Amino acid sequence: MMNEILTAFITFFTVIDPIGTIPVFIAVTANAKAAEKRKMAFTAALTAAGVLLFFIVLGELILSAIDIPLATFQIAGGIVLFLFALTMIFGESKPEEELSHIDQKDNKAIFPLAMPSLASPGAILAAILLTENSKYSFAEQSLTALMMLLVVFIAWALMAMSSYIFKYIGNSGAAIISRVMGLILSAVAVANILGGFKIYFNL
């Protein structure tokens, strides 16, 4: 049980990447007052939590409705997570990639902060894969949801303290951490792919 909780926390921390969100938040709120920054951080975290909870609760039901076996989704999800991890390691880091999406006309708390920075495609896939109904009990799914909420809470706290943190790590530090997270995510993705093949072929 403890290993599963730790795995869920590490997976969500990797795919949500609260540290990598700091430079994005700073750029998005560059001209905002302190009160506006706090409001945007709260809105972004609340929206991301709502999106991920939606997929935790209904993600597998949606797959069942369109007759997609969870094993095949796990394999596909693992591949997508692996490709996502490769972009974190070799491509643009999270801060660099998401800063390019900033548009002054958009609701910045929703885009790019809530999505795709916090509730990223990788986080959505992880939410579904870590709460499989046939594999995990309601109690285990609840713990997974709590781990996700804990990571989102950490992201909110880091955004609230972003001005102080960024003074120490800078863009380079955030990019390095994002790439380390990508390496961890790649290992998690491979484990998901192998697990999906094992289930699909009854190995």
From TrEMBL:
Entry membrane topology: Multi-pass membrane protein
Location in or out of the cell: Cell membrane
InterPro entries xref list: Multi_antbiot-R_MarC
Keywords linked to the UniProt accession: Cell membrane, Membrane, Transmembrane, Transmembrane helix
Transmembrane spans: 6-28, 40-62, 68-90, 110-131, 143-166, 178-201
Signal peptide: none
The keyword Membrane is assigned to this record: yes
Record-stated family: Belongs to the UPF0056 (MarC) family.
Protein name: UPF0056 membrane protein
Taxonomic path: Bacteria, Pseudomonadati, Bacteroidota, Bacteroidia, Marinilabiliales
